[in-house]
Amino acid sequence: MAAIPTYHYPQQGKLAVLGGGESGVGTAILARKIGFDVWVSDSGKIAEHYKTELQKAGIRYEEGAHSESEIMESDLVVKSPGIPQTVPLVQRLRAANIPVIAEIEFAAQYTHAKLICITGSNGKSTTTMLTWHILSRGGLNVGLAGNIGRSFALQVAREQYDYYVLELSSFMLDDMEHFRANVAVLLNITPDHLDRYDHKLENYIDSKFRIIRNQQPEDLFVYCADDPMTLKGLEKHQPTARTLPFSIVQRLEWGAYLNTDNEIEINIPNQDTFTMDINELSLQGKHNVYNNMASGLVAKAQELRNATMKESMGSFKNIPHRLEFVACIAGVNYINDSKATNVNAVWYALESLAPQIVLIMGGVDKGNDYEMLRDLIRTKVRAIVCIGKDNSRIYDALEEDTKIIVNSSSMRDAVEIASHLAQKGDTVLLSPACASFDWFKNFEDRGEQFKEAVMNL
């Protein structure tokens, strides 16, 4: 098992938690257990069930504003990953030499568990869940946390896992200085959230490569050898850990690749070879071959049996809102891919489905470049139905590549329009490429409204 890292932050005194969501409440409960004088501050509203958790634990909280004078008296601040480092309060805390860290970095100091960390622009939720599924089926005592599931800090406070599989977003990685991933997985890098990175791709690449920061020679780094942005990042960020690449276009001596029999082949030093026909995978599509390769490498590195890996990779059910089958109505399949909040995720969705597709997309544009979708739009998409307040950039980019592109006034309206445009054998795909918060609370709300609208047809 991994050793507890050296403590780099205060271990007692006043601790302020910025943000009263899953991450913040879990952090507060762990901090209280350790012995900090802890309180939670949220500039918005804290959900009732989180208030109940805080009250049961005897933890003070405020909502609707930050009491900055009290926060500035803290010995340590743990902030939500959704709060940018550039906000004035965070800048003032740093100027005062008050450490501002992430939940993941805070909680990692208090567990002996081996940390398996997964990041990437696309596929990280699926790969995280798949990895957890394989390891669990293999008999390991493993928790699931990070950007998915219950708070990592809460589990460290209340559970005794030997392993954690952590989904880490770039926002989470940005707040980490001393955190060490025993196993780091980098799936891919495509332009996303560039508004948070001064619209510079190189800044976003640097953020993703923070996952290998502090790794040691005995650790492991798994990465995609086919991804150009990852290869570019490797020119600057040299791994200290052992490396295992994966590829579907080249044969690799060590790592995972697609052999001439259309099988995933995994080779790790001093272990027997694993092979599995890609047609036997429960998740289909080229992007899911990559996801299975990454998860398979992690599992093989933990010395799981080939039979267990094959059974797990053949039985896994995908997460909600990621290429989730909803219904077949009048011969038309309805697929919920609400979690596709960037252009690359939409590309993966379109690539994995057969023509003809009625695509529902749109929302809060994060500086998207739709150029990479044009070929798939031309060859696979019958029509585009736009959701969201302003879809002018979608029109500008894709209007010439599809015969039909229309606006809608609500998710229900979008689904009704799509159902009229679709023909028997078609697929209606919700894959927005954009953030959700102009019409919806979050991508889950968007996906649930889509599913409800489909079932009401």
From TrEMBL:
<keyword id="KW-0132">Cell division</keyword>
<dbReference type="GO" id="GO:0071555">
    <property type="term" value="P:cell wall organization"/>
</dbReference>
<dbReference type="GO" id="GO:0005524">
    <property type="term" value="F:ATP binding"/>
</dbReference>
<dbReference type="Pfam" id="PF21799">
    <property type="entry name" value="MurD-like_N"/>
</dbReference>
<keyword id="KW-0067">ATP-binding</keyword>
<keyword id="KW-0963">Cytoplasm</keyword>
<dbReference type="InterPro" id="IPR004101">
    <property type="entry name" value="Mur_ligase_C"/>
</dbReference>
<feature type="binding site">
    <location>
        <begin position="120"/>
        <end position="126"/>
    </location>
    <ligand>
        <name>ATP</name>
    </ligand>
</feature>
<keyword id="KW-0573">Peptidoglycan synthesis</keyword>
<keyword id="KW-0133">Cell shape</keyword>
<keyword id="KW-0131">Cell cycle</keyword>
<feature type="domain" description="Mur ligase C-terminal">
    <location>
        <begin position="321"/>
        <end position="434"/>
    </location>
</feature>
<keyword id="KW-0961">Cell wall biogenesis/degradation</keyword>
<keyword id="KW-0547">Nucleotide-binding</keyword>
<dbReference type="GO" id="GO:0008360">
    <property type="term" value="P:regulation of cell shape"/>
</dbReference>
<dbReference type="InterPro" id="IPR013221">
    <property type="entry name" value="Mur_ligase_cen"/>
</dbReference>
<keyword id="KW-0436">Ligase</keyword>
<dbReference type="Pfam" id="PF08245">
    <property type="entry name" value="Mur_ligase_M"/>
</dbReference>
<comment type="pathway">
    <text>Cell wall biogenesis; peptidoglycan biosynthesis.</text>
</comment>
<dbReference type="InterPro" id="IPR005762">
    <property type="entry name" value="MurD"/>
</dbReference>
<dbReference type="GO" id="GO:0009252">
    <property type="term" value="P:peptidoglycan biosynthetic process"/>
</dbReference>
<feature type="domain" description="Mur ligase central">
    <location>
        <begin position="118"/>
        <end position="298"/>
    </location>
</feature>
<dbReference type="Pfam" id="PF02875">
    <property type="entry name" value="Mur_ligase_C"/>
</dbReference>
<comment type="similarity">
    <text>Belongs to the MurCDEF family.</text>
</comment>
<dbReference type="GO" id="GO:0005737">
    <property type="term" value="C:cytoplasm"/>
</dbReference>
<dbReference type="GO" id="GO:0051301">
    <property type="term" value="P:cell division"/>
</dbReference>
<comment type="function">
    <text>Cell wall formation. Catalyzes the addition of glutamate to the nucleotide precursor UDP-N-acetylmuramoyl-L-alanine (UMA).</text>
</comment>
<dbReference type="GO" id="GO:0008764">
    <property type="term" value="F:UDP-N-acetylmuramoylalanine-D-glutamate ligase activity"/>
</dbReference>
<dbReference type="InterPro" id="IPR036565">
    <property type="entry name" value="Mur-like_cat_sf"/>
</dbReference>
<dbReference type="InterPro" id="IPR036615">
    <property type="entry name" value="Mur_ligase_C_dom_sf"/>
</dbReference>
<protein>
    <recommendedName>
        <fullName>UDP-N-acetylmuramoylalanine--D-glutamate ligase</fullName>
        <ecNumber>6.3.2.9</ecNumber>
    </recommendedName>
</protein>
